[in-house]
Amino acid sequence: RRVHGGNSRIMKIDKHPFGVVDGVEVSKYTLVNDHGLEISVISYGATLISVKFPTKSENSALEELTVCYADLDQIVAKSSYYGSTCGRVANRIAKGTFSLDGQTYSLAINNGPNSLHGGIKNFSKVVWDAEHFEANGFIGVKFHLTSPNGDEGYPGTLNVDVVMQIDNNNTLEFEYQATTDAPTPVNLTNHAYWNLSGNLKSSIRTQVVQVNADHYTPTDDTQIPTGEIASVQGTPFDLRAPTLFGNVIDHVLGGAEHGFDHNFVINNPNAGTLTLAARLHDPVSNRHMDVYTTEPGVQVYTYNYGSKNPADHPYVQHNAVCFEAQKFPNSINTPHFPSVVLRPGQVYQQKTVHKFWLE
Question: Is 35 in the active site?
């Protein structure tokens, strides 16, 4: 299907069957704008499985900017969250337990002693309803999921909508909305693994990162924040100026491996408004990606637990970086962190924007 975008440009949406999970058909949608940005998303996990973009050179071929698996069987079998929507609560909850309004809830332990990204059969492991659309100069896909009361141990029935859309300005937008019939924690994000070199020609060590954060949240040895909001000044976490990943990645431990797996506190004087969170630049291709979000934090993860065997390329250590815009990890157990509690009558909303451009 071809649709008209802004300035009379032509954008295109294609829908194809992608396989079956638990007897439910999974659909794949490919969205293409008029300037070479092409994304593919699937209804399993509301997952972004591909982002392609050209280089500066004239008539250059599109090249892949993310790490993902090519077929549904691999996506279902693996648990690396490549491009997936994470929830009901993204990131870690300490010891898989929390109290809300005087009641204690227990969750699956699936990451050391903690609960990660919503549990075992989390939002990335189910088939969402999906429909494609065109509106206001965008083409996109709207995903819907009803998470029942007690799903993975969480209280309340949660209705979730996730929109992934592109325009002709090379913008990829994620918009999240959720409502509940009982108090529950909610923290949603997308877990795309980015590498701007094109077709994963080089690791992110050769790419330049910038994070708009004066502070970060240090963690214990299980990667749960200690509660401190610490200055980045004088530490390897000071990414406020453009920084070559290769100069800092070996000076940080993200878990048991070198690299980042830390939440940065985004500088935003107007909480809840869209602001710059991070930038990534590949000097060889001259590709840039700017990330904006309404969220207070961004988890920077440098694929520390990728394989160390070069034969497993591209699924190898430090071959990509995630910018997971969200509330802080373990916020439900840390009262002075931004609240993740959603109550009946309230609407959870989150927006994250990726802007791609060539120097």
Answer: no
Residue 245 DSSP symbol: H
The yes-or-no answer on residue 191 being catalytic is yes
DSSP code for 127:
B
Q: Indicate the pTM of the whole model.
A: 0.96
Name the catalytic one among 35, 117, 132, 191: 191
| pLDDT tens digits along 178-226 | 999 999 999 999 999 999 999 999 999 999 999 999 999 999 999 999 9
**CB-CB contact of 143 with 128 (8 Å):** yes
Q: What is the rounded radius of gyration, in angstroms, for the C-alpha atoms of the chain?
A: 19
Say if residues 124 and 148 touch (Cβ distance below 8 Å): no
Catalytic residue from among 132, 281, 324, 354? 324
Separation in Å, CA 171 to CA 121, 194, 324: 31, 15, 17
> How far is residue 138's CA from residue 167's CA, in Å, rounded to a whole number?
5
Q: Identify any residues that bridge with 298 across adjacent strands, giving them in sequence order.
A: 264, 325
What does the longest C-alpha to C-alpha distance in the chain come to?
Answer: 62
